[in-house]
Amino acid sequence: MPVYGAMQIYLPIAEMSVDAFLLLGLGATVGFLSGVFGVGGGFLLTPLLLFIGVPSPIAVASQANQLVASSVSGVLAQWRRGNVDHQIGAVMIAGGVVGAVAGVWLFGVLRSLGQIDLVISLCYVLFLGVIGGMMLVESLRAILKRRRNPLQRAKLHQHMWIHGLPLKMRFRKSKLYISALVPAAIGLFIGLLAAIMGVGGGFLMIPAMIYLLGMPTQTVVGTSLFQIIFVTATVTVLQAVQNQTVDGVLAALLLAGGVVGAQFGARAGQRLRGEQLRALLAVLVLAVCAKLLIDLFAPPPDVFSFDYGAR
Amino acid sequence: MRSAGRLVALAGFAAGMLVPGLPQSVDPGWLGVGATAKRAWAVTPPPRKPAIPDAGPSSAAPVPEVKAEPGGNVPKGVGLPIGFSNNLIQVTSGFTGAGVVLFGALDAPADVIAVLRGPEVVVNVRRRAEVLGVWANVESISFDRAPAYYRIASTRPVEELLPADARKTLQVGVDTLRFNARDGRPEREALFREALVRLKQEEGLYPQGAQRVVVQNDRLFQVALDFPSNVPVGVYQVVVYAVRDGVVVAAASTALFIEKRGFGATLFRMAHEDSVAYGLIAVVLALAAGWAADRMFRRS
Amino acid sequence: MESQDERSPAPREPEKAGAETDSAAKGRTEHGRVFLIVVDETPEYEKALRFAARRARRTQGRVALLHVMPPLDFQNFGAVQDLMANERRQTAERLLQRVAAKAQEIAGSMPIIYLREGSPAEQLLKLIAEEPQISVLVLGGATGREGPGPLVAQLTGRMIGKLRIPITIVPGHIPDADIDAVT
């Protein structure tokens, strides 16, 4: 890291000084993105942190901490409109906590093996590539004026294997009678993602809740945010205890940038049409994915590296 | 016990600190005929937080105690008072590096070698290789006792001052450092060791070559030591050897404390020592921040 | 983001129904006043509905219903966003149909229906500015500790300067019989 003197902000857990302007710019960018794209913009944050040199374990864990805050402010608005299904949320949280415990444990194992950076990068390349690609195709089709048929949910009489699972529960708010194993499994997967990638996973959870659980769309966003609060809170505590990778200063800066930038982002987002916005996000996501991919394949300047281990 | 020669005892460190990695027994061969040496410093567990010595360099410099075996030859005046201009370096949020001056006095003309070592840490050295086109870590060796920082300073090149076996025993020079590889694979060890030294040198943590120690009037010596902004924190130990005719005639040691200070340091300490509370506080603060953000912008 | 329903191509039956009667209403604006109420999830709007519908019947005017849907969050997948928009519209239409039936029962005429998206106060002002036939705004006021509700607070506060028509506020705790007595 170059030294510029007084304009450095010290990240105490990452044990590195970062240019203050760089972090503020990053915070504003992230805030703007999350304002435009909702909480879903957050999965660009970890790669951006990696690009400025924040070690990936710290980027991931600190972002989980930051997500607690942004999910709380997101869920409160949904809560007031009565859009949170606490029952399904509780089942998903149960699965999510199990996933978080398993994920943080796996995180520690991978870290001691020296593979955590690689796994985080690969996960991001995979998710960003698939999601960015799908979004780009979808928005290009829409922009080229081809009508898009909203992907209809499965009709009730269609029998999916999911409906044959045991432990059926009645969820009153969402008017569902389904096996509790399905929301628990979705929660578990999201818990794993939150631990290893530091994302809330809304981009996967929301379609899964709609198309696998058959939840009404009205309660999907609120319920997913409700679950993410508990999952990211669990991840934060576990990462802090097991890996000591939660950088409070970094999380606070990202949060401040998020709160302020989100206001501008929300305004800018309303001026753009949905499809343009989606194409823009898709390009952004694919660009970040490409950069990560190039870094994975580029020969390192030195094949040797060192890190400090526990005695 | 052999017939006693001189015994240079490095005793009574100010903080009663364990100095791992220092020579625990000294090969008598290079000390002179029949010389013997013993480990003579107090071995106590390191304190959790380093005790900060009193202000002022003089009080921090322990006067090495010179003991003689009964009937031994006590050389006259082998006292070697040393000190730092400042033995506490505070790494604050705007830290861009710092310098200290190590000084001392000789009671007779001699050459001086100063060895400064940072805290010992476990270091994993990893080697990457291409796996399906992707660069991944494929091999690693852990070293148990690699100093986080290492540097030597001397009046003349150390090769001219001490024979190789003595340098090796006292770990004078990067090439003499004993890293203690965990998993015994001697054929790979040298490669990884070399890589670690190279990486450390690139980070400025094992500065190459010996810094020049300046002696005035054959008695007073001093050397300026500067630390980069990424200097690892912890308790540093400097050992100063007075050398005459290829033999160490006096030695002294003192500690240098490099500490994080300020808000960041508090956070760091809490994150490592009280991690449950740290995690819970991080969550509670995030919950509060989310609630506050909602209140602030509820209107819009 | 699809901000205005007018520009959205999806079928909008209730509004169409309203629009048809709109032109008829315009023809007799001199005769009947249009009482606008805002339909939302609060219990107070029912008081406003009762008041407005009874006044409309008495004055041979009409009731207009406005429902403002909260804006949709951006979704990564367009298919999901479209589905959300569809379901949200269906929910809003069901609500409006229910309320419209009630309004018709009391007022004796078919209400005009407006369905908008965005911030309620903003959309309300915009609608009043666009539709000259609207002559009175009737709002229900919450009587809890938290104040009269955001809409009443905003419109009687800084936004009152932007209003072209009078507001009637019906406190939520007034029994139906008392409303009936003054209409």
Task: Describe the protein.
- The complex is a heterotrimer of chains A (311), B (300) and C (183).
- By secondary structure, chain A is mostly helical.
- Chain A is built from ten helices and five strands; from the N terminus they run E-E-H-H-H-H-H-E-E-H-H-H-H-H-E.
- In chain A, strand 1 and strand 2 form a beta hairpin.
- In chain A, helix 2 packs antiparallel against helix 3, helix 3 runs antiparallel to helix 8 and helix 6 packs across helix 8.
- Chain B has two domains: 256 residues, Macroglobulin (MG2) domain (Immunoglobulin-like); 39 residues, no CATH class.
- Chain B is built from six helices and 14 strands.
- In chain B, the strands form four sheets. In chain B, strands 4-14-13-6-9-10 form a six-stranded mixed sheet. Chain B has a four-stranded antiparallel sheet with strand order 3-5-12-11.
- In chain B, a hairpin with a 2-residue loop joins strand 7 and strand 8.
- Chain B starts with 5 loop residues before the first strand and ends with a helix.
- By secondary structure, chain C is of the alpha/beta class.
- Chain C has one domain: HUPs (Rossmann fold, 3-Layer(aba) Sandwich).
- Chain C contains six helices and five strands.
- Chains in contact: A-B, A-C.
- Strand 5 of chain A pairs antiparallel with strand 7 of chain B, so a sheet runs across the interface.
